[in-house]
Write a structure and sequence with these properties.
Layout lengths: L1 E3 L1 H7 L4 H8 L3 H8 L8 H11 L3 H4 E3 L2 E10 L5 E10 L2 E16 L5 E11 H8 L3 H16 L4 E14 L1
Parallel strand pairs: 6-7
Antiparallel strand pairs: 1-2, 3-4, 4-5, 5-6
Organism: Aneurinibacillus migulanus
Protein name: Cro/C1-type HTH DNA-binding domain-containing protein
Pfam family, one: HTH_26
Length: 171
């Protein structure tokens, strides 16, 4: 996995994306894609300009971890508000499929019956949890967020709902 660490570097330097665009001449769409890790690639001259501007090495701007994952499927289990996800983890050449669970508690609804307050607990198998715990947060947060977003597709949410996320493990 490769991720751009631009968001963290900007926060550390009290900079905004607009500052980078103005000061470097790099297109706003490019900076946004790098900031939100949606970029499919980066030109060497862009990488060089950002490294010079932020006074960092390419290894500080772009983070790498020798593993990959794929969320294969997320389905509601037989129990209401419990989800099961098949999760493919590839590390050190080994491919393992894990079952990850997500339990949802709806704590509030508005007059249109849209959810205003929600708690999601992601429960990883111990082996996968231990591997994810060792990842830099930028990687593990993306994995957690992908699971949460897949679960949220099953619900009708109010504008700006309160969503609490908890991470746990099972044996």
């Amino acid at each position: 996995m490769i991720k751009c660490n631009l968001a963290v570097l900007l926060v550390e330097r009290n900079l905004k994306m607009a500052d980078v665009v103005r000061d470097t001449g790099i297109a706003k769409t490019t900076i946004r894609a790098l900031y939100y890790n949606t970029s499919k690639g980066v030109q060497f001259d862009t990488l060089n300009t950002l490294c010079t501007y932020l006074n960092v090495t390419p290894g500080e701007l772009m983070l790498y971890h020798p593993s990959e994952y794929q969320l294969i499927d997320v389905d509601m289990a037989n129990i209401e508000d419990t989800f099961e996800a098949e999760f493919l983890w590839i590390s050190k050449g080994k491919r393992t499929i894990y079952n990850v669970k997500a339990e949802v508690n709806v704590n509030g609804r508005d007059e249109e019956d849209e959810i205003t307050d929600l708690r999601i607990e992601i429960i990883y198998p111990r082996n996968l949890y231990d591997e994810l715990f060792d990842l830099p947060h930028i990687f593990s947060n993306d994995i957690d967020n992908e699971i949460v977003n897949s679960v949220l597709e099953y619900y009708v949410l109010a504008d700006n709902p309160s969503i609490s996320i908890y991470i746990d493990k099972y044996e």
